[in-house]
Amino acid sequence: MSAQTSKSSPPEVDMACCTLCMGCLEVCPEVFSFNEAAEFIEVAELKSYPEDKLREAINICPRNCISRPGSDT
């Protein structure tokens, strides 16, 4: 079974509340990466996003810093 993908807009990370726990990188490294020079989480620009993994990343974020504009996840 393949993971669900969506052509919707990319997730957004509110860096004002992000604690850099790196949980999003662990569950969804194809979307999230850590910019060591600037010390913030980057979101990849993709044609489609793995919905299941994004939902998991959103759910494990301890401060609810990840959102999906135009989505209810």
TrEMBL record:
Q: Which residues form a coiled coil?
A: none
Signal peptide residue numbers: none
Q: Name the UniProt key words of this record, in alphabetical order.
A: Iron, Iron-sulfur, Metal-binding
UniProt-listed InterPro entries:
4Fe4S_Fe-S-bd, 4Fe4S_Fe_S_CS
Indicate the transmembrane segments per the record.
Answer: none
Query: Boundaries of each 4Fe-4S ferredoxin-type domain copy?
Result: 9-37
What is the name listed in the Swiss-Prot or TrEMBL entry for this protein?
Answer: Ferredoxin
Record's Pfam families? Fer4_13 (PF13370)
Q: GO terms for molecular function, please?
A: iron-sulfur cluster binding; metal ion binding
Q: Which Gene3D superfamilies match?
A: 3.30.70.20
Q: Does the keyword Iron apply?
A: yes
